[in-house]
Structure formats: C-alpha cells, structure tokens
Amino acid sequence: MATKNKRDYYDVLGTNKSASQSEIKKAFYKLAKTHHPDRGGDAEKFKKINEAYMVLSNPDKRAKYDRFGFSGMDFGEGFSGGGFSSFTDIFDMFFGGGGDIFGGGRSGRRRRVVHGEDIEVKVKLSFKEGVFGIKKEIEYTRSEPCHQCDGLGALSRNDIRSCPTCGGSGQETRTVRSILGLMRQSVTCSQCNGTGEIIRKACPVCRGKKVVIKKNKTTVNIPAGVDSNMHLKVQGHGHIPTKDAIPGDLYLRIMVKKDRRFERDHYDIHSMVKCSFMQVIKGCELTIDTIDGPTKVKIAPGTEAESQLRLKNKGIPTLESRGQRRGDHFITVKVKIPKYSSLTKAQKNLIDELIKIS
Ligand SMILES: [Zn+2]
Ligand SMILES: [Zn+2]
Q1: Nearest ligand to the CA atom of 172
Q2: H or E element: which one contains 222?
Q3: List of residues 6+ apart from 135 with CB closer than 8 A
Q4: Higher pLDDT, 244 or 94
Q5: Which of 111, 229, 276, 321 is most exposed, with minimal Cβ within 10 Å?
Q6: Of 102-111, 233-242, 341-350, minimum mean pLDDT range
Q7: Quick one: average pLDDT of 58-63?
Q8: Where is average pLDDT lowest: 50-64, 139-153, 268-282, 331-345?
Q9: Angle at 239 between CA 233 and CA 241, to 5 degrees
Q10: Residue 156 C-alpha to ligand 2 middle, in angstroms?
Q11: How far is the CA of 196 from the centre of ligand 2 (A)?
Q12: Is the pTM of this model over 0.85?
C-alpha cells in the first residue's frame, strides 16, 4: 500500500483538476513523446505518466480519483491504475492499435495483453453499517474461461483452425490518415473477431464462446465512514475474458439507507431535540440518540430556540483516518410552544400570573 508518497496524477501530467479530457490527452501525448523509453526516456517516469493518464483519461476512474484520491481507492491491494502493465498495451490503446507513431522500427506483431472489464455491484447498507463499516459477503456474476474446455472454445485443438482472412493474427492492416500523416493501423479481423481462429466443433458447455457466466462470492471489509455513491474497488474480481487475461476489477457502489433521526453532513451528524419552553427557561437534562446509542445532554438555563449543542467526536469515523478520527454530532434545540387554546384553566392562570410579575 505504498501510495502515501505518490505524486498527484494531475501534477504528473502537468495539468489540473479543471482540465478537459482533450487537454489531458494533449498533456499526456506531449510527455509520452519526450519520456518514452524507446526514445531514450526514463522508464520509471514514463510508467508514472502512463499510470496518471490511464486514470485521468477514463471519466469513471477520474471521478473516483477526484473523490477518493489515492487513499480512498487503496483497497487492500493498492490502487494500480487499472492494471496496465506494459508500455505497449497503453500505446496500443492510445494510438488505436499497432500504429507506428515514432517513424518505424517497431512494426510487427505483438501479443496483446487482454484486460477484463470491470463490474459494478450495488451494496446496500444500513445507516449504522455505513458509519461503522461491516464485513459483507458480496455476490456477483462474471464471465470466466469455460471450465469444460479450459477456455479453448472446443474440446480438442483439432477442432480449431487458423482464420483464413487474417492468417491467425486476428488483425487486418489498413492505412489511415492521422495527425502525424499516413500510418498503418491494424484493425480487428472481421471474420474471426480478432481471435485468429475458427472453431469447427464448439464446446457443448460454452458453445464455442470460451467463457461462461458464473456466480461468485467474495467477502469484503467495508470500511467505516462510507457514504452513498462511493465506489470501493476489489481488485481482480472483474470479468476474465481469456485464460491469460488480466482480470477486471469489481467496484462496489455503496448505497446507505437514511436514518430518520440523523442527518449526515460529510462526517458530521445533525439531529434535533425537542424541549418545552419551561425546560429551556429552567435548563434540564435530556436523553438523546447518538450513533453510539442513547446519551444524556444538558440543556443550559436560558438556551435559545434553534441553538446548537455540539458533541465532539461523536460523529462518523473518517475514511481518511481509517476510523481513527471522527466528526462531530450537532444537536439543534427545538422549542415547543403550546397553543394557548389548548392550555388548561390552571395553566392559563399561571401564565397570567407570570405576565403580571415579569
Ligand atoms: Zn481472422
Ligand atoms: Zn467451453
């Protein structure tokens, strides 16, 4: 979890939070050309640039990063920026596959690393579970390589032949016009959909699809302080499209139920307490609900209506401190004024008496 001393992704790309997607792309393009190891750049630096770009260029990942930073995303196994492991993969993605943008030398076939898609599941929590965290078993479905044929699509290798259109490469080459002039670009073969092979006799379980949809379970420690619409990443629990693919990630979208007693404001709790006007005049002790259970609070004599009491450190544990620090609990004093017409004769007499002597 060595994410503490990482440089901000926006800093790495020399841009800022308000940058548009195209500004981010431009910034990355410029840096990538300077620092690419193929052009004598520093590999470590290049890796950091890539990582920053992989996150900030993906609107979903960028939103998560903006919200959580590194720490919120760091979920046990660290935030890897989506698991892109090699430079070529990133360049394939960025430049549309196989394009030789640096003017020659790097052409030829490369084995592409396949990345599985991410999965999002909603996780419903009670108010208290969101506040204090909980260990939860998460059920979800994902595609995995077929167990019958081991992801082959056929029961025997003899039932598979090479695709005649692309000769087994899965790619067709064509020339396209780009900002850097004409360049050769590989596109996915239309006959075999990029697999490079034609299955003659399909596996009966996956029907030649190579993958099956499977129900999965995983137990996750949901940290204290989570709130609705936060995403927690469980690395490697997403779809697995092929046997040697890097699995996608599982994102848990948190939905926290409301509690009618408590209003949440970031890590603070707001609630109210009702008092009679006699109680606020004289002062009193009342029992109120907190997230830790009932507790007694003193209402000082002469407390005004709508004034706030503050219970320090009785709010919600913060995600950033991993539950070590907590917000506060604010209580608004509501004063009930009875209707004069609803008063008893004795009460009315007492009020007349009060008015006379005050
Ligand atoms: Zn083909
Ligand atoms: Zn199969």
Answers
A1: 1
A2: strand 211-222
A3: 219, 220, 221, 222
A4: 244
A5: 111
A6: 102-111
A7: 81
A8: 50-64
A9: 145
A10: 10
A11: 17
A12: no
